[in-house]
Design a protein that fits this description.
Elements lengths: L7 H4 L3 H9 L2 H15 L6 E4 L6 H7 L4 E6 L2 H10 L5 E5 L11 E6 L9 H14 E11 L3 H7 L3 E6 L2 E10 L4 E10 L2 E10 L3 H10 L2 E5 L10 E7 L1
Parallel strand pairs: 1-2, 1-4, 2-3, 4-5
Antiparallel strand pairs: 5-11, 6-7, 7-8, 8-9, 10-11
Helix pairs in contact: 3-4
């Protein structure tokens, strides 16, 4: 499977955005927002960073709880949707590469949820983590959720899987490249008789490698719950030193 290294720059447009906007029910977003509010453990009014923020569902849910949010993403379509939903103008939306976080010791907490980490090469992933650390105040928490912990990923990875999301269908073909430790994915979107194929790639790390990677960015690391091989995602709770 041939995947461009900068695949993420143009992936989140058109049909991919349409599918993602239908993918998760409001109840799921509310549960995640409650988890973040509890885990970040900062008072209402605190400044939080959502990176990458996608269509802004978590930024908007946390803004409704009284937090001050900054959402960062590269996709113009995602950001335009987020702005259109932000009727109270409670979130600052920024179009940036996730490594380009110019703030210094500003935020009281940050988060990266879903399947948003590992798009980049090793250097890029490290740069992202260091940028988040620099943007946080000492003692602030960063929640990094990922399905790309190798011990978990390989235990439940399917070669092919079909998903129905709203009025769309998605076929996912997975190929794990053990030489590069990357999961290459071919996505076939089917919507209203239209078929589009796109490709993406995610860097997977072992549990130990994840902890070392995060700690090297000036964090201490713990988990939201004990690790098990059966988990489909792992949430690392990183505290800025």
């Amino acid at each position: 499977m041939n995947v461009e290294s900068n695949w993420w720059e143009s992936f989140f447009e058109g049909v991919a955005v349409d599918l993602w906007l239908q993918a998760l029910p409001p109840e799921h977003t509310e549960r995640e927002a409650e988890f973040l509010a509890r885990t970040l453990a900062v008072p209402s009014g605190a400044e939080l960073l959502d990176v990458p923020c996608g269509a802004g569902r978590l930024s908007l849910a946390l803004a409704q709880r009284g937090y001050q949010l900054t959402g960062v993403d590269w996709s113009l379509e995602f950001l335009n949707h987020a702005r259109s939903c932000d009727t109270l103008h409670g979130v600052t939306w920024e179009r940036r590469d996730m490594r380009d976080l110019p703030w210094r010791a500003r935020f009281d907490g940050a988060f990266c949820l879903g399947n948003s980490f590992g798009y980049l090469d090793d250097e890029g992933n490290v740069t992202f983590l260091r940028a988040v650390a620099a943007a946080l105040k000492p003692g602030a928490r960063f929640v990094l959720e990922t399905p790309m912990v190798l011990e978990n990923l390989l235990g439940h990875l399917q070669d092919r899987a079909w998903w129905k999301v709203g009025d769309m269908h998605l076929l996912v073909v997975n190929r794990y490249d053990h030489t590069q430790e990357r999961l290459d994915i071919e996505y076939t979107f089917v919507s209203n008789g239209r078929v589009e194929v796109r490709r993406g790639s995610h860097r997977a790390y072992s549990y130990r490698e994840f902890v070392e990677l995060i700690e090297a960015a000036d964090f201490t690391v713990e988990l939201d719950q004990p690790w098990t091989r059966d988990a489909k995602t792992v949430s690392f709770i990183a505290t800025r030193r």
